[in-house]
Sequence to fold (234 residues):
Amino acid sequence: QSVLAQPPSASGTPGQRVTISCSGSSSNIGSNTVNWYQQLPGTAPKLLIYSNNQRPSGVPDRFSGSKSGTSASLAISGLQSEDEADYYCAAWDDSLNDSGWVFGGGTKLTVL
Amino acid sequence: QVQLVQSGSELKKPGASVKVSCKASGYTFSTYRMNWVRQAPGQGLEWMGRINTNTGNPTYAQGFTGRFVFSLDTSVSTAYLQISSLKAEDTAVYYCARGVSDYYQNNWFDPWGQGTLVTVSS
Fold:
């Protein structure tokens, strides 16, 4: 059971806009920034969004992130077939006895 | 360019040990923490902990104490993950990932190594 909750799957057709949610608590998303990672099939995760809504160079502006309270979202507009991947949210957790990085369980995005 | 290159796949018997390497290039090794992340087959990502590449001080996440050891060889810009007394449930892909911070102390992982598959089977 992951500390951050993500839907296990999402889907859309080419050109559509899809969103993936990530729900946490006051000790993680509520007090720290959220990062998103994209894992294409058979490859290592890659940084997609950092500090809630910042895109690294090379990441298309079709990808955007937002955060409100203890939840965050990743939006992908103009969906393309190459966006089919697993997406993970992550945040630092300030729990008293066990601080550290926590991840969502991942959302498998299918482009129909 | 900034790059992390990990050692190749390993097949080990239960009870054995394994040492995974992560060689960094393209930046000053001692400036960024190195994190380790586990991904069991078909599962999500799990943070194992990190090592301060300046001091060598490791931090282990819950569930990764005792049999797991992070170490460094700064002369060759390489971080290591050693797992002892291997069990079948240690079968996973292990990733190293550079920890990056900004002025506001926000942090993220970039880049990641390509991953090392460790298979534990008799």
Remarks:
- The radius of gyration of chain B is 14 Å.
- Chain B has a mean pLDDT of 97.
- Chain B touches chain A at residues 35, 37, 44-47, 49, 59, 61-62, 95, 97, 100, 102, 104, 106-115 (CB under 8 Å).
- Residues 93 and 117 of chain B are 4 Å apart (CA to CA).
